[in-house]
Design brief:
The strands form two sheets. A five-stranded mixed sheet has the order 6-5-4-7-8, with helices on both faces. The protein contains ten helices and eight strands. It is of the alpha/beta class. The chain folds into two domains: 120 residues, no CATH class; 149 residues, 2-Layer Sandwich (Nucleotidyltransferase, domain 5), CATH 3.30.420.10. Strand 5 and strand 6 form a beta hairpin.
């Protein structure tokens, strides 16, 4: 069966029922040949006749005597154990992949037909897959900057306003550090502060030594000159271009990220900011590939231990 689709309309025509969705995921995860997720056996499993509402779903039992456990293609993935129809999971993954500014749990609930609480859980489980597991070192010219996520002090209720929290102060806000390479790759990380002891180890982990680093005049970046060619764009003096060097690239990403937060999600919990940063970074880094490729890239990362609602809200 041809599982190529580019739009949500084509998605609905292609993956129209649960059985088709399971067959699609079997093709993606196993290349059509079932593999026991419990023991990894490639031996042909027994087919099991499913019951009740799952009667049309392909189900198996491992043919290894020491294992002999039942499974479906959802077993051993983030989709395991969910009572939500698999088609709704796949539609949520497609929506999250192609929506430029993300999709809120309220909007997702309306589109896939679940409660807002269920849509929130699905959204966060899928976001948990949007991170680079084996990132390559960035090199050449790399821009550095940090931003603050959180409401403006003047917009808060007078009882919740925090004194001296404007500018680079992170009182009541979440700090996100980010880099953008000349190739267009963006990486982000939530950090507790913007001191050199915090930022420099992250930079050395992400960026090849000897590369050209472009940053503003923040004091923590002065230590970069030990291992990098450091170019400073002095924002405090009204300078925004230093020769051919600028930090506009990473600042443009911050603009996109913040518009997504304020326009789509309105507000986010500080403990989940990293997941939102990973989501926007992944989508930004793959902005030139097709919708189906973005969808497949997300689904390919589903072989992860499932996360429960209790853990996410702890």
């Amino acid at each position: 069966m041809n599982f190529a689709f580019k739009t949500i309309h084509q998605f609905n025509d292609t993956l129209k029922d649960e059985k088709t969705c399971y067959e699609f995921f079997e093709q993606v995860r196993w290349n059509g040949v079932p593999v026991c997720p419990h023991c990894g056996s490639l031996k042909k499993p027994y087919k099991v006749k499913a019951r009740c509402k799952f009667k049309d779903i392909p189900s198996y039992r491992c043919s290894e005597r020491l294992c002999d456990l039942p499974f479906t293609v959802r077993t051993g993935s983030i989709f395991e154990g969910s009572k939500v129809e698999f088609r709704k999971w796949l539609q949520a993954a497609f929506e999250l992949s192609v929506c430029k500014n993300g999709i809120s749990s309220v909007e997702l609930a309306n589109r896939i037909g679940t409660s807002q609480k269920t849509a929130w859980l699905i959204n966060h489980k899928l976001r948990g897959m949007l991170n680079e597991t084996q990132p390559e070192l960035l090199k050449d010219v790399t821009q550095l900057d940090e931003t603050l996520i959180g409401g403006k002090n003047r917009n808060k209720h007078i009882d919740k306003r925090i004194p001296n929290s404007q500018g680079r102060s992170a009182k009541g806000k979440t700090i996100v550090f980010g880099v953008k390479s000349l190739s267009g790759k963006v990486r982000t990380k939530v950090v507790p502060n913007v001191e050199a002891d915090t930022l420099i180890p992250i930079i050395e982990k992400w960026i090849e030594k000897g590369s050209i680093m472009v940053s503003d005049d923040w004091k923590s970046y002065k230590a970069l000159k030990q291992n990098y060619f450091h170019i400073v764009v002095n924002h405090s003096l009204g300078e925004y271009v230093n020769g051919a060097f600028t930090t506009n690239g990473i600042e443009n990403f911050w603009s996109l990220f913040k518009r997504g937060i304020s326009g789509t999600h309105h507000s986010v919990s500080p403990k989940h900011v990293q997941k939102y940063a990973d989501e926007f970074s992944e989508r930004y880094n793959n902005k030139n590939i097709s919708n189906i490729a973005l969808f497949h890239k997300l689904i390919d990362k589903s072989d992860k231990e499932r996360v429960t609602y209790k853990v996410l809200t702890a």
